[in-house]
Amino acid sequence: MLGSALARKAIRLRSLRSRRLLHSYDRPPTPSIPYLTHLPPSSEPTRPFPLYQPPPPPEYIPLTKETLSQLPSDESLNRQLKDRLTEKAIEGLPELTEEDLKDFYADLVQTGIDSREDDVLAIESPGGQLKLPLDIREREDILNELENRLIGSGDIEQQGGLMKIDEESSSAPKHYKIFAALARLGVPQDGPSGTNKSPAGAIQTQQGVDIPLGLVSKREWNVLFDEFIQRRDARGAEALLDVMTLHGVPVDETKIEEIIKVDAAAGRVDDVGRLTAEMANSGLAISDSHKDLFILSLLRHTPSHPQNAISQLTSAEQAGQPYPQSSYQVVLQHLTQPSPLFQPNAHTRALAWDLFANMRLSAHPTPTRELYTTMIRTCGESAQPEPERARDLWIEMTENEKIQPSREEYSAIIRALGSTKKDYLEAFDLLRQMLAKHHDAIYTPFSSEEDGLPRFSQYVPTLETFTGLLEGTKRAGDLNRARWILTETVKLARTGKMLNSKEWRDGIDADLLSGIFMTYASWKPLVRRGAVKVKDNDEVLQEFGEDGQIKSEIEAKQLEEKNVTDEEWLDVDVMEELVESSSSKSEAIQDSSNSQSNLPLTPQSSADALREATALFQRILHDVASPPNPDTYLPFKDVVLGPKLINSYISVHMIHSPSLAATKKAYEEAWSAVSEITKGNFKPNGWSHLQILEKCSHGTRAGMTDSDRPVAFEWGQAIWDEYLSWSTKATKELETISEPSMKDRKRWLMGLGDRQIERIWKSAIRLFALYDSTPSKSLHILEEFFVRYPPEDILKTYRPLPEVNGLKIKLITPNSTPEANVPPYLLFNDVKLLHEKLIKNDDIKGLGKLTFYMKSYEMMLLKRRKWRFRGVGQVKERNRGKYAKRERKRLEKAKVEMIEGDAEGVD
């Protein structure tokens, strides 16, 4: 029994072990506790349960780069300290509400209103801030007081005075008398004045008289010097500086610069060089402005030949001492911008682009803001528009060079984009950006419009900006935008006069108003004149046609006009203040059932446009003729009436007037009113005669009817005779001008340019060929034109493109440059009507003359074109530049040798 029991226990134990071993393959092994061999042994003694246990020792942190980088910085420590101090300071204070925070922020913003952005940008030099401007009356009072003190009144010698008036100087101007008195009282001293060759030395006497200090104050010296400068008397101002030195008065460097400016404006190169050399010898620094004045003197000395100034720039580049970009700016402005001394053409603009490219290659790779502005403005020339090039320069300036544009840059790009009909809307987009920047610059939070006067910023548009926009509107006939421009300019002029802003204090000018009238002339009415007929005021105007085709056409045009110009910012309300509503008495289609408020605010017909233009012109005449009144604002008070403004107004009548007789009446009334206001100072010029002859000579193509033909022939004959007599006098007046560039500019302004002469003679030939019974008069005019402007002049006036030595790159080729200075000529299409009249009358002799004249002009033009493409005369032009350069070096060398010889003779 015992044995069997032990055997069963042994079997049970073995089965249990085998079962455990079987299950051990299915479960993961139990993790064992690792031995912490890297930890230091515990030094804590074993003790029974303590009543107090000390804190554990701090953890050991090794000083490595990682641990040091994790330490807090000084900034974070200061921030934590400020946070703790702030929490302690506001502990126990009530929390601020939203209204309290808003009031606090408003007070904070109001404290910075006085520090405007334009005030920070317009910081003047210390001298400019200290110098107070004096008006004419104050200067006159100071000179009178100084004259009485030094000279006295009458011929009696003053007992306490200084001298008596000489009989020779009694008729001299006041400032010369004072100068003579001070020169005689000066004490000669050794110094720069003793060696100066100014006229002061001839006036000094043998014995000088000491003047008590303070007898002539510094302010009086400055007023006397300014009197010489304003009279453009540089030598007198220079002599006055010598007298000031004799009296012990310190001479400011700015006074010498003022004298250099006068000499540079007059083109006196030698005097500018002499004064600049004297400044350098005296130890004074030659600034960039002095270099600019020297370049300006070269341009003013020979305005028709800017190659001398460009050669000076290129010579400095080759010497490794290039002129500043401001000097290049002076030359580029002269070549591209019209002035009383110079009339730019295609050749001068091509030379400007070559100089601009050469400057970026040899001297200054990155142009300044002013240079970008000048070249962008060059792209806006109406005779040669280049909006694509202007857009490229604009992107380069704003995006590549990161130059933030100001109003000058915006005005330039707007003028360039407005020079074409397809790009002028982009100019309005840029104006929108400009106005957005202006509003951002003047915006003040938590302020209303009633808080103070309106403010101007550096982004406020100027007259140049709006005139550039009108260049586009008058090409596209966009009358709504032109009326909006007139509204905004009137508002800005009123605000600028109130704020005495230098951009708007002079008000609106004649160029802007001329653009407004030209837009009226190019605008196409929504309602055609043939679509309506005028009846009595009590009758309803009826439409022609039974199917309503004209009505649907009018509605389509109105819808198209609304879609084009219906913008939120385009608020046209100029006529609310200047004239009555154009539609209140409109002769266009009206519905008597509609109320007055439903009438359109913009012109719908030619009669509406003509009424608005006439009212605007009458308002201009009223404001100009009105006496000045400080209590009444007249927006057109400062407008200068001239032929351009009157001609642009007459062009509106030329297009929209119902008859030529009405146009003639408006022409006579306008010039009569202007002559009465200006006392005969302004009369019709060549542009005035041109538009009338072109209108009269085009017959029904110009919108005239059969009833206008007698008026057209009679008026055209009178205008042609008037033009011949006027052109003869004007030509004699132009012959007195010796400088060719000044003569070209004057001719263009008077309407005697080559293309203007060509157009007016063509119109006269067409006029007599169209209305006269025989072609003899028209043929006689053609013969006279051939004698006055022979075809040989086309070759005689040929000039090669300007060549300047030193220009390493050229952007313009002869093939891409339009021809300039081509004398008047006629082609067959210009006399086609006369040719048909001669064929009709079987005038074989006249046909032979006409054919000979036209073939002569065509052959000469073709020959000149071949010369241009072949580059005839270009080598001679280059050699001429090289010869001028050698001659200039020879003269400079001879001058240096002469000075050295004089110095050796003195020794």
UniProtKB/TrEMBL annotation:
Chain segments carrying region Disordered: 22-47, 583-605
Regions of compositional bias (Low complexity) in chain numbering: 583-593
Record keyword Repeat present: yes
InterPro entries: TPR-like_helical_dom_sf
Keyword Transmembrane helix found: no
Keywords, sorted A to Z: Repeat
Sequence similarity: Belongs to the CCM1 family.
Record's protein name: Pentatricopeptide repeat domain-containing protein
Organism per entry: Kwoniella europaea PYCC6329
Lineage: Eukaryota, Fungi, Dikarya, Basidiomycota, Agaricomycotina
